[in-house]
Amino acid sequence: MEDLTERRIVVVTGASSGIGLAAAVDLARRGDHLVLVGRDPARLQSAGDRVREASGERPELFRADFAVLDDVRRLAEQLRAGYDRIDVLANNAGAIVLQPVTTVDGFELSMQANHLAPFLLSTLLRDRIGRLVVTASDAHRSGVLDPDDLNAALRRYRPFQAYGTSKQANILFTAEAARRWPELPAYAFHPGVVRTRFGNESRVVALGMRLLPFRSPEKGAETLVWLANQDPSRLVSGGYYTDRKPHRPRTKASDPALAARLWTASAAAVGVPA
């Protein structure tokens, strides 16, 4: 097995396409050892080929469906078994869910896939992680998070509001992680509005993705890569960034009391100590 003592180990979730794949390619070209996590085996294999073509090294591949929390638990066990450290964990996996869906774990799908699953993964790997980077979004402006009811979206489902609520949770989680885990630098960022596979199930959304001036995945990944490489002394742990600059989120995503309530509710939801 390759000696990785002189190279950083970077785990990227949601790495099969879009921002995650673009970031993985860039980081691999810079000499990092990449570990790609994705849901679809065929697309994950294709992503691995892209990274290998770009860097000359095939990344490690792990399949996990964030709609199933047992998949996340298994992934954490596999990563712990394979690596004594993870220099960067990029919590990038996410989805816009166009219809109300309840997961096998009993949660609204976008809240689970975009927040609860990465929360669980980060918690299970905490002692191995050197830096945490979370893909959030300015869509948090539409968020209506209630930590006492993480399934509130299911009662009157609006896809983009549910997505925005999960992104609000991402920013709150990152800030609270920085407070609770001061030894672990944690950053959230807005990638811009990026042309990805989001909304492929909807003809209307897919048409908009083709017609509107969206960013490329490579452009969207720039801040992720930058946050993964900057000296922590030049960044604010718990901060929210856009285009490689600090960016102030809405009050609903920067309330420490709300962040603490979300943390407690999330820990109870996924069965880890708060």
Taking pLDDT < 50 over at least 5 consecutive residues as the criterion, the unreliable ranges are: 198-202
Strand order of the largest sheet: 3-2-1-4-5-6-7-8
Question: What is the helical fraction, as a range of percent?
Answer: 40-55%
Beta-strand fraction estimate: 5-15%
Give the overall silhouette.
globular
Could you report the average pLDDT, rounded to the nearest whole number?
93
> Distance between termini?
36 Å
Biggest sheet character: 8 strands, mixed
Q: Element order, helices and strands?
A: EHEHEHEHEHEHHEEH
Helix and strand composition category? alpha/beta
Number of helices: 8
What integer value in Å does the Rg equal? 17 Å
User: What is the subunit arrangement here?
Assistant: single chain
Total strands: 8
Structure description:
Strand 4, helix 4 (109-125) and strand 5 (132-135) form a beta-alpha-beta unit. 43% of the residues lie in helices and 12% in strands. It has helices at 18-29, 41-55, 69-82, 109-125, 159-180, 203-211, 217-229, 256-270; strands at residues 9-13, 33-38, 60-63, 88-91, 132-135, 186-190, 240-242, 245-246. An eight-stranded mixed β-sheet has the order 3-2-1-4-5-6-7-8, with helices on both faces. The chain is globular and about 50 Å long. It is α/β, with parallel strands linked by helices and 274 residues long.
